[in-house]
Amino acid sequence: MAAAVREDGARGRGRGRRGCEHYDRGCLLKAQQTCEECSTLFGEYYCNICHLFDKDKKQYHCENCGICRIGPKEDFFHCLKCNLCLAMNLQGKHKCIENVSRQNCPICLEDIHTSRVVAHVLPCGHLLHRGYRCPLCMHSALDMTRYWRQLDDEVAQTPMPSEYQNMTVDILCNDCNGRSTVQFHILGMKCKICESYNTAQAGGRRVSLDQQ
Fold first, then answer.
1. What distance in Å separates the CA atoms of residue 181 and residue 199, rounded to the nearest whole number?
2. Which is more confidently placed, 60 or 150?
3. Residue ranges per domain, the chain?
4. Domain 161-206, what architecture?
5. Which comes out higher in pLDDT, residue 12 or 17?
6. For the segment 109-132, what is each residue's pLDDT rounded down to a tens digit?
């Protein structure tokens, strides 16, 4: 016979039972790590603030975040301006944005502050779970230098049709915010200032070099 399941999720006797016999019987128990009647361990980790029971994952409770985090605690610090626990190697080396974690990931739309998925801190200061470009400010999320050099080779090996070979376009770089006028290419237009291909046409019309 299958084990009876209570509305609160506790199972009866048998395989997969949670808690202890006192919990199964619905005894009034104080929220704590062990049963005060039989000393059964309810969880390797217990937070008496969040009342969270879990396996030992080096968790710790952050008072500023207001929730438990997966540690170990010594590997993280709480940034008061960002209002988020960050890895120690980011202390003093990240761009702060006030309450940046109190929003949803702009890609997957999951709440960043309470998510168990690691959020990446971008050079622009925004957070997201995955992606190569921040969808909020369009800055590159990673060091793209190697990819830009590969794109240099592809551009060099891909000549444009004759009607486009002498065309220029005004661009805005999403990485350095610089503006420049460059030769148009279908694979990408390289910023003259920082050499990034993370650019967008800035509204200027394409002009033939022969007409300048």
1. 11
2. 60
3. 30-71, 75-142, 161-206
4. Single Sheet (2.20)
5. 17
6. 888 888 877 778 888 888 887 667
Question: Above 70 in pLDDT, residue 7?
Answer: no
- What amino acid is encoded at 159 in this protein? P
Of the candidates 129, 105, 102, the residue with the CA atom closest to the CA atom of residue 118: 129
Q: Are both 75-142 and 161-206 of the same fold?
A: no
Each residue's pLDDT tens digit, 83-110: 989 889 889 988 899 998 888 888 778 8
What HEC string does the chain produce?
Answer: CCCCECCCCCECCCCCCCCCHHHHCCCCCCCCCECCCCCCECCCEEECCCCEEECCCCEEEECCCCEEEECCHHHEEEECCCCEEEEHHHCCCCCCCCCCCCCECCCCCCECCCCCCCCEECCCCCEECCCCECCCCCCECCCCHHHHHHHHHHHHCCCCCHHHCCEEEEEEECCCCCEEEEECCCCCCCCCCCCCCCEEECCCCCEEHHHC
Given this structure, which CATH class describes domain 75-142?
alpha beta
